[in-house]
Design goal:
Elements (H helix, E strand, L loop, with lengths): L1 E9 L31 H13 L2 E5 H10 L3 H9 L5 H8 L2 E4 L11 E4 L3 H9 L5 E5 L2 H9 L5 E7 L19 E8 L5 E7 L11
Parallel strand pairs: 1-5, 1-6, 2-3, 2-5, 3-4
Antiparallel strand pairs: 6-8, 7-8
C-alpha cells in the first residue's frame, strides 16, 4: 500500500488545535485553536471527502486516534454513516475501513475494526506497505508523521495550508529533523485562499557548495 499523509497547517506550519473547539488541544498553553473551521470552500471539502473515501486503511497516533474515535466513532455518527454513507463520507470511511493504532500507551483500542501495532513499528508499517495495492492514510498524528518521515516510510504528503499565521503551537515539521527534498505533484488554491499542495519525498536536498 502507498502510505500518504494529509495535514491541515497554517502558513507558519502549525497543526495544533485546528478542530472545531478552541479548547480541543491546549498543550503548552496553546490558546488559538479552531483556526481551520469554516475556512474550506465546497471544492476543498469535496477533495477532503474523496481523499477519505479512497483510503483502504488508516494509521493513527494516539492523540488523533482518541479525538477521531470520540467524534467520528460516536454511536450516532457511526450509525448515520452506515445507513447513508453518501452523505457521511468521512464517517463512513473511518467506521468501515481498517484502522491501525501506533501507540505505546493506548494498547486496547475500543473503536471498531482497530488493530494495535505493537513491537517493531517500522516492521509493522513495512508489512502494511508491502501489501500489493491500496492506500494507507495518516490524518493529524503529527508525532507519528515526523517519525514516519524520519524512517523514510511516507510516499506522499498532502498539505492543506490555511492562510493564517498563529505565532504559537506545535508545528508539523520540527526545528531539528531530517532534511527531505520534495517533488511537487499537484498545487491548487480554493476560493478562500486555502492552498492544497501534494508532494512526494525525493531523497535528500541538494545544497550549493562554496565554489558554486
Amino acid at each position: 500500500m502507498k502510505l500518504t499523509t494529509m495535514t491541515q497547517v497554517t502558513v507558519d506550519g502549525v497543526m495544533q488545535g485546528n478542530g472545531g473547539a478552541s479548547d480541543e488541544d491546549r498543550r503548552n498553553g496553546f490558546e488559538r485553536g479552531g483556526w481551520a473551521m469554516g475556512v474550506f470552500d465546497n471544492e476543498t471539502m469535496t477533495f477532503i471527502d474523496q481523499t477519505y473515501e479512497r483510503a483502504d486503511a488508516f494509521l493513527f497516533g494516539r492523540r488523533t486516534y482518541e479525538l477521531f474515535a470520540g467524534y467520528w466513532g460516536a454511536e450516532e455518527r457511526a450509525r448515520a454513516a452506515l445507513e447513508d454513507p453518501g452523505n457521511h463520507q468521512i464517517a463512513a470511511a473511518l467506521n468501515t475501513k481498517p484502522k491501525y493504532l501506533a501507540s505505546t500507551t493506548l494498547t486496547e483500542p475500543r473503536w471498531t475494526n482497530t488493530t494495535h501495532l505493537s513491537g517493531d513499528l517500522a516492521a509493522a508499517v513495512g508489512e502494511l506497505k508491502a501489501k500489493p495495492a491500496g492506500e494507507l492514510q495518516v490524518h493529524g498524528s503529527g508525532a507519528l508523521i515526523r517519525w514516519l518521515l524520519a524512517n523514510d516510510l511516507v510516499d506522499e504528503i498532502t498539505l492543506l495550508v490555511v492562510p493564517v499565521v498563529l505565532g504559537q503551537g506545535a508545528r508539523l515539521f520540527p526545528d531539528a529533523g531530517p532534511d527531505i527534498a520534495l517533488d511537487l505533484v499537484d498545487s491548487r488554491a480554493d476560493s478562500q485562499g486555502v492552498t492544497i499542495q501534494v508532494y512526494r519525498p525525493a531523497g535528500r536536498p541538494r545544497y550549493a557548495t562554496a565554489g558554486a
